[in-house]
Design a protein that fits this description.
The protein is globular and about 45 Å long. With about 100 residues, it is α+β, with helices and mostly antiparallel strands. It has a domain of about 60 residues.
Length: about 100
């Protein structure tokens, strides 16, 4: 329990815009994020940028992810692409530095 409290105290508070900048600066390195999914469950995602998505059907996406404050990332555990929603982002961990999103 004390370790969890200490981790909470060491978190830097940043905005979603700063979170986007930090993620772009990872240059393909692995990072972790916690966010609320559509079904209101909390999910921790270990992911990275830099992988290129190839459609299995050959069609383009029907929408632009950035118009909905989403970022396509590669999930390292599932080995597939997922969308990171900045509207519900709670925490971000990059290079052993923890950030809380306000």
């Amino acid at each position: 329990m004390e370790g969890a409290k200490q981790k909470q105290l060491n978190m830097n508070t940043i905005t979603t815009d700063r979170a986007k900048e930090l993620i772009k600066e990872t240059n393909g390195r692995i990072f972790s994020s916690t966010f609320i999914k559509k079904d209101n469950t909390i999910r921790t995602l270990t992911c990275r940028l830099g992988k290129r998505y190839k459609s299995k059907t050959g069609r383009n996406a029907p929408y632009k992810a950035q118009n909905y404050n989403l970022l396509p990332v590669y999930d390292m555990k599932i080995k597939d692409f997922r969308m990171l929603n900045f509207n519900t982002l709670l925490t971000l961990t990059i290079n052993k530095t923890n950030y809380k999103i306000k």
